[in-house]
Amino acid sequence: MLLENAKGGYRFLAGIAPYSSGVIAMPGYEIIHAIFKQPLPWREGFEAVDAHLKGIGRNRKALCGIELRCPTPYTMDGFIDFNCEYCRVLKDWDLFVDGHNPVARTNVAPVLHAPVTPVLHAFSYTIPQQEDGLQTLVVAGAGELASRELVSDGILRRGEITSDAMREKAMYVMGVMDKRLMGLGGTWDMVRAVDIYTAHAIDGVVKDVILHRLGSAICYGVQWFLTRPPIVEIEFEMDLRGVRQELVV
After folding, report:
1. Each residue of 156-168: pLDDT tens digit?
2. Which of 59, 106, 196, 224 is most buried, most CB within 10 Å of its CB?
3. How far apart are the C-alpha atoms of 232 and 78, rounded to whole Å?
4. What gap in Å lies between CA 134 and CA 37, rounded to an integer?
5. Mean pLDDT, rounded, for 122-141
6. Percent of the chain topping pLDDT 90
7. What is the CB neighbour count within 10 angstroms for residue 248?
8. How distant, in Å, are the alpha carbons of 53, 143, 150, 230, 247 from that of 46?
9. How far is CA 47 from CA 176, 194, 195, in A?
């Protein structure tokens, strides 16, 4: 279900309470992607996002994407508890639209140099578009959780990390990316960043499962983050975006 966040200048694909499945800028707007030079504890990060938006004349409603890094993957219950805290912040910011969370999210756990507390790594927001009407979008992170409910039994090939299992997980996640991209009204031609999040070898997976489905987006390649998805026993995650401007703040 594609919903409109008119005050934020974007449409979003309804997901579950902690995050939407993706966002696409409305006509007259574009999405900017910004990475923190130094990641901040996530609540401080929201304050920094607020300051950045105010500094460019945008309000909180323009926020459309959040990227978090956590120390280690959560248990399912721990992930649900964190999401409750996270959603309280979004509700305090009055970001929900008719009961739906419009903000896309990716949340992963670095294998190396992991933070000691959850941090805000990057964010996306809309600005009025001054140029040629290029459509911009962000597809939220997804792993091989083959269920809309946050339950461990929904994890595809749960507990398996053989090459065959990883290939099946990657195929499922790639299908989710396809579905979300099309649900936003987007195409692979609009994608300029394909991110993979896993602690496992991906050579065969990238070649056999991902690259041949990217279409013209293949010219941008893929970026592999040596990370684990945010929930114990999920092993492979991806997200996408197609933006014109990438900032370091």
Report:
1. 999 999 999 999 9
2. 106
3. 10
4. 27
5. 92
6. 88
7. 8
8. 10, 25, 25, 20, 17
9. 32, 28, 26
Cβ neighbours of residue 164 closer than 8 Å, sequence gap 6 or more? none
DSSP string of 97-133, one letter each residue: BTTB---EEEEEEESSS--SS-EEEEEEEEEE--SS-
DSSP class of residue 75 equals P
Residue type, position 129, single letter? Q
What is the three-state SS of 131-144?
A: CCCCCCEEEEEEEC
Residue pLDDT, tens place only, 170-216: 999 999 999 999 999 999 999 999 999 999 988 889 988 999 899 99
What are the structure tokens assigned to 196, written together?
């993979």
- Does residue 147 surpass a pLDDT of 90? no
Contact 156, 146 (CB under 8 A): yes
Beta carbons within 8 Å of 228's beta carbon, 6+ residues apart: 72, 73, 108, 109, 111, 197, 198, 199, 234, 235
Q: Residue 76 in 3-state DSSP? A: helix
Q: What are the residue ranges of helices labelled H in the chain? A: 42-55, 76-92, 163-183, 203-205
